[in-house]
Structure formats: structure tokens, C-alpha cells
Amino acid sequence: MAPSDGIGEAFANELCSRGFNVILHGRNPKKLSTVQSKLTAAFPKAEIRTFVADAAASSTTNSAAIQDLVDSIKDLKLTVLINNVGGAGNLKAAFTTFADHTTKEIDDMISINMLFTLHLTQALLPLMIKQDSALIMNTGSSSYIGLPYITVYSPTKAYLNAWGNALYTELQAEGITNVEVLTVVSGNTQTGQDTRPANFLRPTAKAYVKGALAKVGCGRTIVVGYFSHALQSAVTELLPRWAQRKVLGMALKPYKGKNLDE
């Protein structure tokens, strides 16, 4: 998981509270160390490890880091993988027109939101298959429907939905029934990136995580993790496509050139 702040840290806290040992992933060693110290203080019996890798780095660079991770945990009982890494990378503004993106920005967002998750999961899957039961949970986004001004980030979340479903279907076809793959679609959540106050439509990261984990074992591969997010998705899906485009364009255009917390 990527626990430097927000949803990732909330997942780490919740899993530790349930008796799990955790491995924290992030690109910033200082932030990882801070979270590790907080978790160790709160859960002294839990073993907390860290794994440093920049999801936006090249596949070659991350391949070596991922292999080092696999080598260091191959004797452990790996039962849960939370694929929570994601985001807009180092954009000057999270909401930007497609024409204004640089090639590097596009490549970085695809690496962060797609490639790193695939490479990490592929490397860890053999360890998970060996367990009596295991869970791969992907943190998705309601932006998968295709949103303006996040025209690179948004489709990567649609890919994540399709990939999670495809992976689970393939595992079942191969007779591997002990690994659950669940993509949990999230809406607006109060995180380190969005510091506005939580409310009914924007739950805290802790509330979202509890809702997401409650969906484990539901028998589906794609679910909406929190009630208010499900309500918003249902309302959006009731609209005809032309109306969706109109409403979403009007709603998001004011954010053009801004970040999540502006």
C-alpha cells in the first residue's frame, strides 16, 4: 500500500488494528519512516516494514526494487495486497486540459496508476497463491466513467476496473480459488490531497477504508466502497450519456488549473 497519508495510512492503521503485520510502500523515505513510527507506537506488537520505490520511475528501475522486496519477504505469509498507489504525479495543477499535458506527465500518470500496480501484483501473486486465502484489493475511482480535465488519470481507473475483473476471472479459470481480487471504487474522500472538511458526501479516509474492507467476500469484483459514493454513482448513472457529459463538464470546468484542495 502507499501509506504516506490519507487512504493508504488509514488502510495501514485498520489492518494493524485487526492483527496484521504490514509492509508500507512509498517514494519518500522520510514520510514512510514517520508513518512507521506512528504505527509502531500505536500497535507495538505489529511488525512494520517499509518498501521505497517511485511508482513514476521507469519499469527497469522499479523491477529491481520490486525483486528486492520479493526476495526479502518470500518466506513470509503474504495474504493481503492493497494496491492504493495512484494520483496525478507532479502536475502543476491536477485539473488540466489534455492538450496542455507534457509527454512526461502522461507517461508518469500511466506508470503511477497502471504499470506499477501491474508489475508489483505480478511479482507478489505467486506468494499469495501459496496461502490458504488471500486478497488483492485495488483502490479504484468513480472517475472511471471518463471525466474532463483529468483525461489521463480518469481512463487509468477504467483500466484498473477491467484488469481486476480480468485477473480474477483468469485465476478462477486456472482453478486458483483462494485469491480474491476486488476493486473498490471511491468517490471524493478527505485525504492528504484534499484537506477540505469531511461530510456526508466526502467521508474521512478512515470511514472509507472501513467501508471498503467490509466489501471483502461480497462475491463481486468491482464495488463502490462507501454508501454516499454509491449514491452519487447511482444518480450519475441514471442520467443519459449526453446529460452526464453536460453536467460533468459544468461541474469540473471551474477546477481547471487548480489542485484538489483549492
UniProtKB/TrEMBL annotation:
Coiled-coil regions listed: none
GO MF entry, a single one: oxidoreductase activity
GO biological process: fatty acid elongation
Xref: InterPro entries: NAD(P)-bd_dom_sf, SDR_fam
Keywords per UniProt: NADP, Oxidoreductase
The keyword Oxidoreductase is annotated on this UniProt entry: yes
Short name of any one Pfam family annotated for the protein: adh_short
GO cellular component: endoplasmic reticulum
Key word Kinase present: no
UniProt protein name: NAD(P)-binding protein
